[in-house]
């Protein structure tokens, strides 16, 4: 299925049972809620999906299940975050076999590669597959910035089509557009500044809190792109305290707790992460409960 890299792409959490196995029933419930809300694709095994703790067999199960469950209604992407180029290439080829429509690629894990190494890493993986590729640029968390000069070399490969822009610098959207025009689709990867980046020309939003609030996320996107800025702002201002849960080291636990409150997930995480307890859990619950209690009535917007 062809990916347009336009719209809302949830980075789905991976649901686990109390026995630390995949909870496909709850995963499927959340996936269906995303599709019903009008998302444009889903990303499996991202940072929010606890990629570093998933086995290859679990990634296969999640991709095959997502492809079957979605039934061609939306594209399914696999995130690849590996320290070894060989393993990343292997997973890219397997993703195609499993039925994935595209890939999101992180730079090398656990090694701070330089310009030449980073470009070679990405080009080697993208060159090993016909699948469409989105580069994940997150120097804040992963310590490697994919610079404009790197992208000049990366766009030599036709299947490198998009960037998940997570530098947290809104101006980088304009820099990318000024340099590459429409050659690269830009999707904001930081929930708190997604509206700003959409207004600056980003084509999409790779969301975190969308896992718990898919309809509100889609509404902001559609209103912003329709030029109905005041209406988008109204929802965004309600949403911001919740969106800030996305920019914390415990974003997985925080967003999973939000999914529990709205009936779209479980709190189970995989070690070394641990479930929230005590005052921290109560503080995050209060933020979520306040948001749910004041949730906007979206039918008023007719977006």
Automatic annotation (TrEMBL):
Q: Which residues form the active site?
A: 136, 164
Write out the residues that bind pyruvate: 206
Q: Family per UniProt? A: Belongs to the DapA family.
GO molecular-function terms, A-Z: 4-hydroxy-tetrahydrodipicolinate synthase activity
Q: Where are the transmembrane segments?
A: none
Q: Name one Pfam family in it.
A: DHDPS
Q: What is this protein called?
A: Dihydrodipicolinate synthase family protein
Keyword set, alphabetical order: Lyase
- InterPro entries of this UniProt entry? Aldolase_TIM (IPR013785), DapA-like (IPR002220)
Superkingdom, natural source: Bacteria
């Amino acid at each position: 299925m062809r990916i347009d890299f336009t719209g809302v792409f949830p980075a789905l959490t991976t649901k686990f049972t109390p026995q630390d196995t995949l909870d496909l029933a709850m995963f499927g419930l959340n996936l269906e809620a995303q599709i019903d809300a009008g998302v444009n694709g889903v990303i499996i095994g991202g940072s929010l999906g606890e990629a570093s703790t998933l086995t290859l067999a679990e990634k296969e199960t999640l991709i095959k299940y997502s492809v079957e469950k979605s039934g061609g209604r939306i594209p399914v992407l696999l995130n690849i975050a590996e320290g070894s180029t060989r393993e990343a290439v292997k997973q890219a080829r397997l993703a195609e076999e499993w039925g994935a429509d595209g890939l999101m690629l992180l730079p090398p894990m656990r090694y701070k590669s330089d310009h030449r190494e980073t470009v070679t890493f990405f080009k080697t993986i993208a060159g090993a597959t016909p699948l469409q590729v989105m580069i994940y640029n997150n120097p804040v968390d992963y310590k490697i910035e994919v610079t404009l000069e790197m992208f000049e070399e990366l766009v030599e490969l036709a299947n490198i089509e998009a960037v998940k822009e997570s530098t947290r610098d809104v101006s980088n959207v304009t820099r990318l557009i000024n340099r590459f025009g429409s050659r690269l689709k830009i999707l904001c990867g930081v929930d708190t500044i997604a509206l700003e980046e959409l207004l600056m020309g980003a084509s999409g939003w790779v969301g975190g809190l969308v896992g718990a609030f898919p309809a509100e996320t889609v509404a902001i996107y559609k209103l912003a792109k329709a030029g109905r800025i005041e209406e988008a702002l109204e929802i965004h201002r309600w949403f911001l305290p919740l969106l800030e849960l996305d920019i914390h080291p415990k974003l997985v636990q925080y967003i999973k707790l939000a999914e529990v409150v709205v009936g779209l997930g479980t709190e189970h995480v995989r070690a070394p992460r641990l479930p929230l307890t005590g005052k921290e859990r109560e503080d995050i619950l209060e933020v979520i409960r306040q948001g749910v209690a004041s949730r906007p009535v979206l039918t008023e917007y007719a977006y």
